[in-house]
Design brief:
The protein is of the alpha+beta class. The protein is built from 15 helices and 13 strands. It has four domains: 8-120, 2-Layer Sandwich (Nucleotidyltransferase, domain 5), CATH 3.30.420.10; 126-207, 3-Layer(aba) Sandwich (GIY-YIG endonuclease), CATH 3.40.1440.10; 222-316, no CATH class; 323-393. α3 (54-61) packs parallel to α5, α7 runs antiparallel to α8 and α10 (193-207) runs antiparallel to α15 (375-386).
């Protein structure tokens, strides 16, 4: 059937011309649009168009149908499909369905309040369209700028274009206010989602954008330290960062440190005395409430108590002090590396796909050292719990 059909590259420019400035409409649009986008990607071209799905629109305008597949839906409303499952037949049927949906919408004003207008229009003015056209569908960190080119919001995503689009479709008051200030965008491609996460956190602390709420704090004042006392019992203690000898976690206030430590006590049946939340000589009140197993009155073996305390420590600290994580690069010719030195995030960078790293110091030569913030370690640990990255451990 396609033996004499042209190759995609022979008609690609025609598709660009036909769809320029238009909305890509299809039944289950992501399926068809995905194929077109991938074909253009194979030619080195980034094809981006606004999309509209007649499945979603049909559910809004014609609720209660038994099936919204193209064949059954058209059959239920009297649209005949010639050459079913052939490109021309399905495309003509979709066009007829779309025309019917347009008529339904225009003749029934009540649909305006049921989310139909959101599906029928892009809701993106010229400024927003300009911004979307600038953002690639790749992983990285993006910066929303106001009319004075000041950064008002920093975000990260594995697909910056789609993430920006979700901002424009947001119904939150904060989102609407931000969009009113929005005039331009800048971005950095990272390839690696972990590097995007780390870079976003560092940049938010540096610029403190108006519309970012998380990760703005850059001054850490308190820690939860841990140590083993003369009775071989693991202790946790809140203290000032400047006096800390063995910090487990760092915080921007005493209250946030205490909140975390109290949560550990409740969730792990820790003793208030050995968390220094009561006097050193006191029998902790939690023992009376049966929330402490009695380490403070010699009713629990210290090995059992330490097992629960160690579980907390192991979830927080890195097992290895010096290692690198290898992830995707910004293109197929490179790979990214994240370096952890002495148990803390050091920095990130990129190397050739074929490069071999022989020493830890050599790895550090490829990366840009980052300003260290304690929550960077937490971001790496959290990411590794959900994602598998290649790790190389160094003992030097």
């Amino acid at each position: 059937m396609v033996a004499d059909a042209p190759r995609f590259h022979e008609i690609a420019s025609k598709i660009i011309d036909l769809t320029k400035g238009r909305i890509f409409v299809a039944h289950n649009v992501n399926f068809d649009y995905g194929f077109i986008k991938e074909e253009f990607a194979s030619l080195g071209y980034k094809f981006k168009r606004e999309t509209l799905c007649t499945v979603r629109l049909s559910r809004k305008l014609m609720p209660g149908k038994q099936s919204y597949s193209l064949g059954r839906l058209c059959e239920s409303i009297g649209i005949e499909i010639e050459s079913r499952h052939r490109a021309e037949g399905d495309a003509l049927a979709t066009a007829k369905l779309f025309n019917l949906l347009l008529d339904l919408k225009s003749s029934n004003p009540q649909y305006r309040n049921q989310g139909v207008d959101e599906l029928m229009t892009t809701r993106i003015d010229k400024i927003k369209q300009y911004i979307l056209n600038k953002l690639p569908e790749t992983c990285g960190v993006y910066y929303f700028l106001n009319k004075d080119q000041e950064i008002v919001y920093i975000g990260k995503s594995i697909n910056m274009y789609n993430r920006a689009l979700s901002h424009f479709n947001s119904k939150e008051n904060k989102g609407k206010k931000m969009l009113n200030d929005l005039m331009n965008v800048d971005f950095i491609e990272t390839g690696s989602e972990l590097i995007a996460l780390l870079h976003e956190s560092e940049e938010i602390k540096k610029h403190k954008p108006l519309y970012n709420r998380m990760r703005k704090a850059d001054i850490y004042t308190h820690t939860i330290d841990y140590y083993t006392d003369e009775n071989s019992i693991i202790n946790f203690k809140i203290g000032l960062l400047e006096d800390s000898e063995n910090p487990l976690l760092c915080f921007t206030s005493h209250s946030s440190a205490r909140e975390t430590l109290e949560r550990w006590v409740d969730n792990n049946e820790l003793c208030l005395r050995y968390c220094h939340l009561t006097k050193d000589t006191s029998i902790c009140f939690n023992h009376q409430l049966k929330k402490c197993r009695g380490i403070c009155v010699d009713e629990e073996d210290h090995l059992m108590y330490n097992k629960r305390a160690n579980k907390i420590i192991e979830e927080i600290i890195f097992r290895n002090k010096n290692f690198i994580l290898i992830d995707k690069g910004k293109n197929s010719d490179e790979k990214s590396i994240v370096v952890v030195e002495d148990g803390h995030y050091y920095g990130s960078g990129y190397i050739d796909q074929t490069s071999t790293l022989y020493s830890f110091n050599e790895c550090k030569e490829y990366v840009k050292k980052s300003i260290f913030y304690p929550d960077s370690d937490l971001l790496i640990r959290g990411f590794l719990k959900k994602n598998n990255l290649k790790m190389i451990v160094f003992n030097d």
